[in-house]
Amino acid sequence: MPNWLTTQRACPIGIDFCASGAKLVQLRRGRNGFSLIDTARIDMPLYQEAEPPTSARLEDLCDAIKRTIETERFIGRKCVLAVENRFLRVRSVRQPSMPPDELRRAITLEAHSRLGFGEGEESQFGWLTAGEVTQGEARGQEVILVGARTDPIQRMVMALARRGLIAVAVEPAFVGCARCFTRFIRRASEQQDVHAVVDIGLHSTGVMLLRGKNIAFYKPLEFGGEKMAKSAAERLGLDLEAVRELRLQQLRAGSGSGITPDPKVDRAIFEGVRPLIGDLAREVALCIRYYSVTFRGSRPRACMVVGG
Length: 308
Prior knowledge:
38% of the residues lie in helices and 32% in strands. It is of the alpha/beta class. It has 2 domains: 1-183, Nucleotidyltransferase, domain 5, CATH 3.30.420.40; 225-306, no CATH class. Strand 1 and strand 2 (21-30) form a beta hairpin. The protein starts with a helix and ends with a strand.
């Protein structure tokens, strides 16, 4: 756990660079645990679905982040950055059982090529130890490699630095998501409990299996809200913007606003996205099966669905 979670009252500002823009949150640690200082959402897509992020979009988004921090209740200039699947490469690999120092050396030698980075292509990487695996008589370790090209991450950090914001850490967004679900685990009996989390974003979805406080499995999928919106648009014969607004209206109507959702619209949208949801369910089932075979442990009893 980062030291600032236990040594400072106001935590750094969490900034999630997501497909739709950025999400900001800041917590305060007190005697009774954490409390919320402020939260904000900036709808300003950093990239289009088929295009890489551009410098102009990044600068505009960082300007908006600075304005938001200055005009809302956020405290300080330190921040922690979370980057989503589009910036990451993730791969599960198996290594023979070895001491931590030897494992570190082995991963450092192989991670660049295993993640598919070309020779001369600068990258940053880290890894998570998923757990012990057994193949026949051999025992080994499942390791989740996570890497990113250096350039886009560096550009994010420097763009924020030019606006007086100090990035004290950068991590994959799915690691932060996992921390939300595991920080309440205290008892030894809970360390082997397995939880499935499906994090649905605008363009991609992450399937994660947590065992106790550890991430035992993670897989990004090319599936998201945008794909569901396109499918619903085809079903309803409407353009994409109209369907986006229609979905938002239905969500607001069902969120205690006093407005009654239109069941016919709900049904039409559901019929439009049902094949995609079926595909997603099958992918999640395959991930759970892989976990069960790999680690020979208990299966998750439920699946938690989260996301923007």
